[in-house]
Amino acid sequence: MIEQADAVETALRRILRSGSLEAFPTHPKDLDAVLAVAAVTLMRRRPYSEQEINAALVEWLESVHGWMDHVTLRRRLVDLDFLKRTVNGSRYFMNYGRVVEVLGDPALELDAGAIVQEILRERKERKRMYTSGG
User: Over the stretch 44-69, which tens digit does the pLDDT of each residue have?
Assistant: First the structure.
C-alpha cells in the first residue's frame, strides 16, 4: 500500500502546486484522490446532518484554500460515491469502502491542508532566495 499512498500524495502535490485547490481535477484518478482525501477527514460510521457535513467540508476547503463552494464538493462526493446519504437526504455517511479503493486499507489519512502549507512555505523560500540573489 506504500506505493498507492505515494501515488496519491504525488497527485495531491501536483494538484495543489499553486498553493490552493483552484478547481476540481478533470482526470478521474486525480479527482478521486482529492475527493477521497476530503472524505477521509470524516468519521467512519458516524451519521452527519446536512449542516454538519457542510461545516466539515467548509473547514476542509479552507485548509486547502479551495476556490469552490462546499455544496459543489458535497455533490461531487455523493455523485462519485464517497458519501452515502439516506433516502430522505437527512443524513450522510462517509463510504469507507470507496475511500479505501483510492487510499488503500487502512485508509491513508493525508492532510491536504498540511501539503498546501508546505507548498506555500517552499514557494516563499524560493522567492526569498531569488530576491536575495542567492
Answer: 899 999 999 999 999 999 999 999 99
Distance of CA 51 to the CA centre of its chain: 19
- Burial of residue 76, with CB atoms counted within 10 A of its CB: 0-12 exposed, 13-18 middle, 19 or more buried: middle
Report pTM: 0.85
Question: Nearest 5 degrees, angle CA 54-CA 65-CA 38?
Answer: 50
Residues 6+ away with beta carbon under 8 Å from 93: 45, 46, 47, 48, 83, 84, 85
Contacts 24+ apart (CB under 8 A), 29-33: 31/76, 31/80, 32/80, 32/101, 32/102, 33/8, 33/102
